[in-house]
Predict the structure.
Amino acid sequence: MSQKKCILVGAPVDSGKRRRGCLMGPDAYRVAGIAEALATLGHEVRDLGNLIPDEIETPATTPDHVHAPAETIGWTTRLKAAGQEAMADGVPIFMGGDHALSLGSVAGAAAHAAAQGRPQFVLWLDAHSDFHTPHSTASGNLHGTPLAYVTGHGGFDGFPVVIPPIPEQNICIMGLRSVDGPEREMLQKCAIRRHDMREIDESGIARPLSAFLDRVADAGGALHVSLDVDFLDPSFAPAVGTTVPGGATIREAHLVMEMISDSGLMTSLDLVELNPFLDDRGRTAQVMVDLAASAMGRRVFDRPTHAFA
């Protein structure tokens, strides 16, 4: 990968679910050496520090069971604006924070792509589909809603409108293994490309990813990659509040990131759902930093060996 300007955006979003701890994520990535890892690859690195959400009133039409809607809307407006500004200057890496941050990061990426006349694509690396709306989610946790939001589904009163919404066929979810009934019904009716862990076990991860990256390249598209800690098996990455056994191995995850790097298509990246309170001596933060470095050009055989002693 050619040298890039990497813009680190601290997004200590902790409003998308009830279990607290993801607000410590951005600083954990810094301690794990994300800036140094990217700089070693020859990239220019700029750290914007940690953002704060805009002050927003809760819309009267928001369902009562939704957790912290005003704070999450405030994060969305702030991150959308920050994302648009950062994308004009380099490759933003949004360091979260729970997955509700992607409501803003993807909206900002889509707005930037639209201004350039390019279609926006999204690669969603996650155990969950995050395709609920505020009305369909039983938990009321908005970290499970970003893909419904950016594809233009209703019920997101008070959130900035995503114009144009991202076409469902421009989204690919990989790593699925925890989807509830209502989400499953919605997914079966939509055009989102989705690959669960059974398919990956049977056929491998490279073929469906390669097909999706080819589609992005053929369309001249911009690619936003959203990496959730729970894409990985919890035996490798325990620091997440939504652990689901049977996730991607370290090698599969690095292959995904290396293929993204080889494609040269990634224009923005999320690192989400890291809860350092649940980590084992910084192990998960280091894994996520290493994966980000692979996405930006590092190869596994170049990686230093980390001792967790």
